[in-house]
């Protein structure tokens, strides 16, 4: 049977100010300095200092912005031909500005064009970044599963870090988050 | 899906396909965290500020909590999306079949599915969540008496049921009305069938819904109280005719001292008959202690009760009389039709034992009169107190065939009884409350009777009454139709108007009802009650009693229902009342008619005419006085103009009232004429002279003065079809409208066309007399008939005009005959052969106004 064959790309945006491998956990000394420099900000009581919630001066990245950036990139790198080819089936199925993870749907033939264009994006709304493709698959389900796995790995990683740094509070929090997510997974029985 | 990529999910309107698409899209969408979002959970703190750029690298922070939260949320959202999209796309095994192979309840019974799907279906059923909910009770449990009683109590809710409710609910259309759930009409018999039964068989209606009040005290006190409320032109309840409890009495109840205004309802009274006391022969009947029952229509029950209590206080009789509501302690059946007496004879097995010693005379009387064809030849309203055996003992009953003739000896006996009605036959122990209670508690259960039946040697033999069996005291009351005064001379069709009313103690409705039905009675409901009144040209409460509170309720509801029904029909498909000039198609606008009546008498515009002031003029003598006034005004010659005016009519009415009310009990009535004639309605019957029909709310118009001759001519021309029943051939008597020529035929044809035109002409609003309150095809007449109300002022004016026209006619015809042949004028000077009180009646759904005549209806 003839049908549209798609590819789903799971990608992550890594901003230039994001440490590679999420390794940077600040020393508590720098925390005081940060707070002093910004007296207007009210930091919450997290031992990790300033939380993202209080510091949202930058508007969240909308799906639209991402798509425009991608289309621009395609047009720039692959010309009108590439833009025309990828026009129709290009859909952003999911994007979360919180985790910077998203899922794109493209037709199977044009996957490499889009992948390439993603790779060539080096800034989003003036913020330097790279986009890395984590996974490709023929169904959205596998992408979703991979995302879940990826997220859980991230949480585990941080948890191990916290264990190493003997930060018991962070450790328990992460443990709870992890447990919560695994409960979800178990209850859904995928 | 691809096709719809760029489309937004629209509103779920449109085809099923669209709805499905939207549903799928929703199921597949992945939720995104929407707390105030950080651009990233990892950030350099003062990225934008130049001061912090130097130590940007060192102050990079990671908020672990929000980081973990965001991830956890994402995991959760993705899982949900996967699950929901999977569920949305999922199909149960039975859904995968094409429609023509689907079977009912296949989801429940997998054996209805093709074999290839059964395995899958089985797996699906196993994984179904367990259904909660109590298993319904089994039938045995549900039908146990206690459960059943509980269930019936629950179903009744705020509405009351009669004892025969279950029987009726299985066979009749039930309606919620007057606080009861009552039978409207039979499910399988139409109006005509019901009419036939009432004319040839017997219709029985459970009228236990009539409220009953018991009043005790000295007869004098009770009578005094009611003198304030009853129609003073009729006998009081203290009159010798009724005080002994020999007869029941139906009259009209008004608010205290406001006759003739503020009618509440017609009510029925019955005094308890006391055993004759030898010692106190001389004692005045009125000074004795008495017990009075009052039956009131449920729509007016509360109002009546309140009024009576109020009057008791007003007349300072509060301690002397005792009012008790015994609404649910009596059962009442109404019998109508020629077979009623025969049915009663079959079902009522008079008790022969010693217990019935005080009923001897009544039993003897009943045995004599029960062979009579109907109750109409009995004195009106007489009461018989009987003691009968439990009808279940001899169930089922069979009514005897109609006798061809009655033996002369028996008929002579009956004759004697009718002429000399025995005094002491109305006594009954049904009057005692404890007796009724005891009777109910000692009622033999059906199971015991069945045991006795089982012991019979021959199956089907009737049981013999034993001492322990209940003996039921009851009252059998002759129900008069129209009041005697208003009946046509010679009795008319009174046989169909009269009937019996059976009053039983509570709890005994079903045994008697079932016996009656098995003996051949047809059940009737509210519709039958109304149509029976209609067929016999009687008014029916509350439908034909404008401006009683009960009527206002009824009219309001009917109007609302009519409007709602009309509103549901598309504009193009419904009758355009506006175009037809019908202003009030769903309910009578009495105020409009009354205003028109005032205008007719030249009284000018009356703005202050209020709905609540309207009253019903129903005293025959007052109506007669009204008509006489009209006649007198019309009959006076042209020179001495004595036109009717409101003032003169008011005076006439007040005079008449003064003459009628001899008692000094209602002095307030006399002082000022509070009941103004321009607010009065008179109930009339509408009899079509030619063709024509009327439904409910038909409009009654007076014939304009200038058209009267034309219409009258039409009645005469019609020959055969006139009310006089003259055949067409004999219409040689020339039309009195100056027609000396011989070409009658031509004229007739010409007349026909002008008449049609005249009929189609819309009558002016100023000639509006009133409305039809009940109107339909009348089986007893064989044509359409209506009962309605017209304004008293309009009626008087109409009579005046009519008399004038007649006078003019007789004058003119006399003049002409005198001119031609000397003496002939005295004899057949062609009196105007048209019926009196001719009007035009227009049905709400017709363009034509048809000629009809009015009669005064009780």
UniProtKB/TrEMBL annotation, chain A:
It is an enzyme of class 3 (hydrolase). Keywords: Nucleus, tRNA processing. Coiled coil: none annotated. InterPro entries: Pop5/Rpp14/Rnp2-like (IPR002759), RNase_P/MRP_POP5 (IPR016819), Rnp2-like_sf (IPR038085). One of its GO terms (molecular function) is ribonuclease P activity. Belongs to the eukaryotic/archaeal RNase P protein component 2 family. Component of ribonuclease P, a protein complex that generates mature tRNA molecules by cleaving their 5'-ends. This is Ribonuclease P/MRP protein subunit POP5. The lineage of its organism: Eukaryota, Fungi, Fungi incertae sedis, Mucoromycota, Mortierellomycotina.
Automatic annotation (TrEMBL), chain B:
Residues 1-59, 116-145, 719-757, 806-832 are annotated as: Disordered. Residues 35-51 have a biased composition (Low complexity). Residues 116-139, 721-737 have a biased composition (Basic and acidic residues). Residues 739-757 have a biased composition (Acidic residues). GO terms for cellular component: nucleolar ribonuclease P complex; ribonuclease MRP complex. InterPro entries: Pop1, POP1_C, Pop1_N, POPLD_dom, TrmE/GcvT-like. It is found in: Nucleus. Residues 680-857 form the POP1 C-terminal domain. Residues 67-138, 141-217 form the Pop1 N-terminal domain. Residues 499-590 form the POPLD domain. This is POP1-domain-containing protein. It comes from Linnemannia schmuckeri.
